[in-house]
Amino acid sequence: MKRYQLYLDPHSVSVLDEFGKQIEVSRSKLIQMAIDYVAHNLKKVFVATKTPTEREYILDSLVGAIKLKDKKITNFARDIDQIYLRN
Fold first, then answer.
1. For helices 27-49 and 10-23, angle between their N-to-C axes, nearest 10 degrees
2. What is the DSSP string of 31-61?
3. Do residues 77 and 63 make contact, with C-beta atoms less than 8 angstroms apart?
4. Shortest CA distance to 35 belongs to which of 80, 74, 2?
5. What whole-number distance in Å separates Cα of residue 37 and Cα of residue 35?
6. Which among 8, 18, 31, 59 could bridge 77 via Cys, Cβ 3.0 to 4.6 Å?
């Protein structure tokens, strides 16, 4: 973990301190938890909105999505053109 300095609103600090006393968690731990929660959700947004590169095929994310009972390894995304272009 790395140390950072930030400025907080005094009212926010008093709310954190009061809540921290109730659940017996330090102010710094509450701030860490809040930032980790926000960062985790931001990561989900970035992954969901990421534009694939030219070499990245959008359906490659389907590899392994279908699990067969006989545990056969499947790669339906690799063969998607043949599947959709059948007459």
1. 110
2. HHHHHHHHHHHHHHHHHHHPPPPTTS-GGGG
3. yes
4. 2
5. 5
6. 59
Same domain, 58 and 86: yes
Rounded CA separation 40/38 (Å):
5
For range 35-42, the mean pLDDT: 93
Q: Is residue 1 part of a domain?
A: no
Q: Residue 75 — pLDDT band, cuts 50, 70, 90? A: low
The helix/strand count (H/E) of the chain reads as 3, 0
pLDDT score of 66 more than 70: no
Into how many domains does the chain fold?
2
Contact between 15 and 34 (Cβ < 8 Å): no
Distances (CA, A) of 36 to 30, 32, 41, 66: 10, 6, 9, 32
Sequence letter at residue 39: A
Instruction: Return d(Cα 31, Cα 13) in angstroms, integer.
Output: 10
